[in-house]
Each structure stands twice: as C-alpha cells, then as structure tokens.
Design brief:
alpha/beta, Aspartate Aminotransferase, domain 1, binds 4'-deoxy-4'-aminopyridoxal-5'-phosphate, globular, 15 helices, Aspartate Aminotransferase, domain 2
Length: 407
C-alpha cells in the first residue's frame, strides 16, 4: 500500500485548505446568508458583450484558429498592448514588454513567489493579508515578517532582509482599508533603502465608491525612478472583479527583464493562458469595461452603505468595524471576551450566516494579537442589501448573546 503522506514534498507541510474555499462549497445551501466569500455579483457580468465577442470570433476563420491555438506564453499580443496603453494612460507608462498575462492574478502571485523565494527567505506581508497570497507564498517556505501597521515603525534597519513586501494598497482584502499616499511613499522609501521588491496587488483598484483615487505604488515608483524598468514594483492586476472571474485573465506589470524571467515560469507551469479567453476579454474591455465598472460601483456602493447602516444598528457596544471607500469587504472586531472563530462557527450553525473568522488571514509563524483573534470579515458584494441586512441583524443578536454569556 502506498503511504501517500510519506511521499508528499516538505513544501506541502505548511499548505492547508482555505476556510473560504471550504465555505464556498456551502454556496448551494439556500438557507445560508453568505457574508463570507467576496465573489463578484453575477448580475453585473457583461453577458451580451461576451456573447457578441464570441460570435465574432467563430464567424472569422482566421480569428477562430488563433482562438483555439496555443497563445504565446507572454500573452495574446493585442491584449498585452491594450493593457500597456491603458496603464500608460492612467499614469504608469509602460509597453507590452512590461506585461505578462496570467491565469488570474492568483497565478501571478504564485509565479512571483516562485521567482523570488527560496526556502527560509524572508517575505514581508501586511497583517492581516489576502489568504490566497499567503497560501501561494506558503508553498515556497518563506519566513514571514509582518509589516508593522504604523508606518512610523517602517525602519530599514529593523525590517531589512526581506526579499519582498506584499501589499494590497486599495480597499484591502480582508480589512477594506486603504493605504494613504504618505504610507505609499514611506513604503517606497523602505524598498529603496533595503533593496527589497514590492508586490502590489491591484485586485480592487477600479472599485472605488467615494474619495479620490490615490496613485498606485507602481505609478509612484515610475515617477521616482523615471522608468518602469528601474522600478522595484511588480503589480498584479485582474479582470476578475471588473469583467468576470471565470475567464481567468490577469496580468503582472513590472520591469521587462523581470517579466522575461516570469515568462519562463509561465512556460513551465501551463505554457500559456487560453487564447480564446484573452481574445474574448480584449473585445469586451474595449467596448464595455468602463460601463461595467461604473455599474458595479453603483451596485456595490449601495450594498456597502446598507451593510454599514445595518452594522451600526445591529451591533452591541464594543463592536467596531471599518468603513471601506471601495472593494468588497468590511472588517469587524468583537469585544475582548468573544473569540471570532467561535463566533463564526456559531453564526453558521445557529443563525445560518457565513462570515470568515480573522484567523484565516494571518501568516504562519507571526504573532497573533488578542485583537486579531476577535476579528472577522464580511463581504457585501454578492447578495442583495435586504438579505445582507437580515444576516447582519442575526450577527448582532449573536454578538449580544455571546457578550452576555461571557459576563
Ligand atoms: N488578490 C486579491 C486581494 C483577491 O481578493 C483575489 C481574489 N479574490 C485575488 C488577488 C485573485 O483573483 P484572481 O485570480 O481571480 O485575479
């Protein structure tokens, strides 16, 4: 009998199932109010534009052949060109040589870790951090260092030695908070002083509901260093939250010489992203990207406002929560006596509401503070405001009960 456990590579030791993926299996259970996963609302996907783009491919034999053939590993050239022009127009001058198309930005995070981490290397991450990034990095066996929350402590002498620092500056997953311009500049100072790379996750950048946009780290770095090829930043972008996640099209933007290395990883991993999906996506972004983003922002803004109002009404004193200017998430902190993991379990079993306990978002090996044990993530993206309100009311009732039980 094969003992599979004895055959697994050491890198699998730290790899565990994601609580969020496990919860997604519950999505079919209709009685559950899902405030856990941050899926985009399928009502916003541009169905007719995708259908027209698809028909146009199949009626043109030259395009049809390209669509079903292997794409170049770097990505479909016209899509790379479109992304480069769009980023240039947005203030991050670059060319197609600076762009690698990936199967979603998740693959981009995996490739970057594969490129930059040997076992035992230091990887700096925000705490808490996007769980998918942590799981991607885990497989390369880094030693995690937490980026201190207060930028006054971003001291090159104390924080040196990391190969990279991973951040999601806009409307972070999971906290919904946004890095200020001053913090972005301070992080670039830190990168310049220590020589580490910055991995900028731009997943939610387009989903801003109020306030002024703050320049990305990539834009600021290009302005500082004069050229993307000299910037210390690798930016991961995606069309998952602006068009549709199933197309699995994302990209990495960064110095051309680093992109060439990442192309070698892409070749070894899956040769190329689907040509068909890239062609569909290019057609759709050229026609309806801006309208789709505008529509998504209207829908999500309303849901955010409704969820924040419900939290204000439902939660007992001592519960605090963030007020995101964009993205899909709110982060709440329970009073000292309540453990968020137990709270999330009871929310699901007793009240049929799913939320994600904060523990999922902390990297292994870093210290977890009492405040972190009391935190949980809510998402307002996928269900209508009234149902979400009902869910938040049930969470409020549970928070009150657990507060009383602990008294
Ligand atoms: N980064 C962040 C912060 C995310 O929340 C997600 C998915 N929710 C991703 C990256 C990965 O998205 P995708 O692979 O679909 O581009």
């Amino acid at each position: 009998m094969t003992d599979w456990n004895s055959l697994y590579a050491s890198r699998m030791q730290g790899v565990v199932a994601s609580d969020i993926r496990e919860r997604m299996k519950l999505l079919g259970a209709s009685e559950i109010i899902h405030l856990g996963g941050g899926l985009p609302d399928p009502a916003i996907f541009p169905y007719s534009a995708l259908s027209a783009a698809s028909a146009a491919i199949w009626t043109d034999p030259v395009r049809a052949r390209t669509a079903l053939q292997y794409a170049p590993s770097e990505g479909h050239a016209p899509l790379r060109q479109w992304i480069a022009e769009r980023m240039t127009g947005d203030g991050a001058p670059c060319t197609a040589d600076n762009i690698l198309i990936t199967n979603g930005s998740q693959q981009g995070l995996d490739f970057i870790a594969k490129l930059l981490l040997s076992p035992g290397d230091k990887a700096m991450v925000e705490i808490p951090s996007f769980i998918g990034a942590l799981r991607a990095f885990d497989a390369y066996q880094p030693l995690y260092i937490g980026l201190p929350q207060d930028s006054a402590h971003w001291d090159a002498a104390a924080l040196g030695g990391a190969n990279f620092c991973y951040v999601g500056p806009d409307f972070r997953n999971p906290t919904g908070t946004t890095m200020t311009l001053g913090e972005r500049e301070a992080l670039l100072d830190l990168a310049d002083a220590t020589g580490m790379a910055l991995i900028e996750d731009g997943c939610y950048e387009a989903l801003r509901y109020d306030g002024d946009a703050i320049p990305s780290l990539l834009k600021l770095a290009i302005a500082r260093h004069g050229d993307i090829d000299k910037a210390p930043v690798l930016y991961t972008g995606t069309f998952s939250k602006t068009i549709a996640p199933s197309l699995r099209v994302g990209w990495i933007a960064g110095p051309a010489h680093v992109v060439r290395k990442l192309v070698l990883i892409k070749q070894a991993s899956d040769l190329a992203t689907s040509a068909l999906n890239q062609m569909l996506l290019l057609d759709v972004v050229q026609t309806v990207l801006d309208d789709t983003v505008t529509r998504a922002c209207v829908v999500y803004r309303e849901r955010r406002d409704s969820m924040l109002a419900a939290l204000g009404e439902a939660m007992p004193p001592g519960v605090t929560f963030t007020r995101p200017e964009g993205g899909l998430y709110v982060w709440a902190e329970l009073p000292p006596a309540i453990d968020a993991t137990l709270f999330a379990q009871r929310a699901l079993t007793e009240h049929h509401v799913s939320v994600i306990a904060g523990a999922a978002f902390y990297p292994g090996g870093t210290e977890v503070t009492p405040g972190q044990r009391r935190s949980f993530r809510l998402s307002f993206s996928m269900i209508d405001a009234d149902l979400a309100r009902d869910g938040v009311m049930r969470l409020g009732e549970l928070a009150r009960r657990m507060t009383l039980e602990s008294a």
